[in-house]
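Dissemination and training. As part of the outreach component of the grant, students in the summer workshop were shown how a complex can be specified as a set of sequence lines and then modelled as a single object. The example used during the hands-on session is reproduced here so that future cohorts can follow it. Participants entered these lines:
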Amino acid sequence: MTSYIRPLDFRNGRVDLSHGSGGRAMAQLIDELFARHFANEILAEQADGACFALPAGAGRMVMATDSHVVSPLFFPGGDIGALSVHGTINDVAMMGARPLYLSASFILEEGFPLAELLRIVKSMAQAAREAGVAIVTGDTKVVEAGKGDGVFITTTGIGVMPEGVTLGAGRIAVGDRILVSGMLGDHGVAIMSHRENLTFETTIQSDTAALHGLVATMLAAAPELHALRDPTRGGLATVLNEFAKASGHGMLIHEKAIPVRSEVAAACELLGLDPLYVANEGKLVAFCAAPDADALLAAMRAHPLGRDAAIVGEVIADPHAFVQMQTAFGGRRMVDWLTGEQLPRIC
Amino acid sequence: MKYIDEFRDGDLARGLANAIADAADPARGYRLMEFCGGHTHAISRYGLQDLLPANVRMIHGPGCPVCVLPIGRIDSAIALATEHDVILCTYADTLRVPASGGLSLLKAKAQGADIRMVYSCADALRIAQDNPQREVVFFAIGFETTTPPTAAILLQAAQLGLGNFSVLCNHVLTPAAMVHIMESERDPAAVAIDGFVGPAHVSTVIGSAPYEAFVARYRRPVVIAGFEPLDVMQSILMLVRQVNEGRAQVENEFTRAVTREGNRKAQAMCEQVFTLRDSFDWRGLGEVPHSALQIRPEFAQFDAELRYGVGYRQVPDHKACECAAILRGHKQPADCKVFGTVCTPDHPIGACMVSSEGACAAHYTYGRFRLQPE
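and obtained this result:
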């Protein structure tokens, strides 16, 4: 059947208000962009929602949502598209679940170049394909120029919990070992290196990645895995404080054991930032019983996303539930909650 | 990181810790003030207090430019942005400092004021060039370290004949504040400080010579030290030795960056642009004579205070706040009733809690576990 519609101009075209109006232009955007690149059977039904059967034997489900407003939209090692897929998959994975489906909701700003939107959508499609997760439903809205920042993407994920797996702060016990899956701070520094008025040259790339494969490996290797979390905004320090508060136990980490690239350490030094508080998008923090720690570490290091994994500390008895660090220098200090946003210092 | 890791070496630190423990006389105490926020930060961040014997106590001084900036000065900056509709450019440090009426620069920005964070004052000049139809003000704060860059952009603005750019000058002076601390007692000999860890970056500019009159007059040793933790340890050892030997001299640990004369070119630029204020209100210390700079009349058109007729209104510190005593070494953060309860880094009441380099904020953020009963 001939459509008699002029195809969207993905080279020079721009988003306009009609793309969110519910009319023909919106239908065309969905057909030629989203449906085409996210292509899967469920989406092909063209329904208002996604209808799917659960895998046989599925018991508990996990659902997580994440909004993405990163600036700049494209950064070394990734873009907002890949990030929006990885971020939500990781939230599902940190519960111990196997992610199945995603929804994707776009808020587009009038005037946003279709070429950039295409690049973002292709990147999302690729990230989802690589992760084995289908984007099965979505929504598009367009706001007037000046009322958005190009594009915001909200994704929601659904996954199934394997039989017998329960992770969470409630399982963290004194004596547990604290592990991280690799080099910290790459994403935050990669983003900052491309912020307006702060451009500095660096080879650091964002670590954005989907971690559910690594999590599956870890669950198989360490039955006494107690809790997982991805140290995104606020970094390792924030995750440790969240778990300390929720579990009621103290944490002691060892500065020498914490993996940080020298380029990241140098950039943080220059900007007056602390790598412990800098964001990651492809790393996780794990708590497991001490006897399982070595096996867990070995399993993580055998996985491509856990090559630089390390045991960085342990859970200690502390009624105040403080996070402390043994410094490489030989002293001890607290690693506190971040105050406000991490802002660079002048002297 | 080359040239950085060498100054953070744990093995060398242990060696220095042993040397300090050997040198310190167990029969007496050593109360040493690190003047600068940079030193306070290093001491807290590296857990340096753990490496010192119990009778060597570090007192955190007033050398954090954000902490000592009085509320009234922030109020003036906010007024420029809200009432005069200027683009106000500021270093990030000042954004969260609480001002009158529950405001801060960050909150004023959220309410629509055009306040922009810059990494360098040169960025402020560029913003003025890029926005010829707008008035642009740089909110200049800091000790002698950040003063020469401000002087440089004022000279540049004059050369370019920029009509839409000015500076709200709040630059303060280190030696004047040190003198003020010693003069805070009727008898300076009674001041509870045995020696000073002297500023690092400030001294690269002013040199070590300005402290010579200070040690001669007040008989307290000053050891200029770099901001790396080994620098601080080494300077503590040098101070302990001076105290033991009854010496009071200016010694320079930071020889890789500080000379006796300092940076002559930077000094000349500052001299050309700035002149001494009769007095300046410091948060926590109050009025300190001859402790700050103002823009010379020759550059009046670039002086935001004159250009917009900005008045200064003193806002008293919170009654329960012990910052004044803490900054003079009489009290420790935990001695203050509001420390960690009403006054926290998220809701600072006093000067010492305002910036991460302040004595109370550093103690709260890095050292609070030491205060808790087991």
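Chain A touches chain B at residues 197-198, 256, 262, 265-266, 269, 318, 320, 322, 324-334, 336, 339-340, 343-347 (CB under 8 Å). Students were then asked to discuss how this feature might be tested experimentally.
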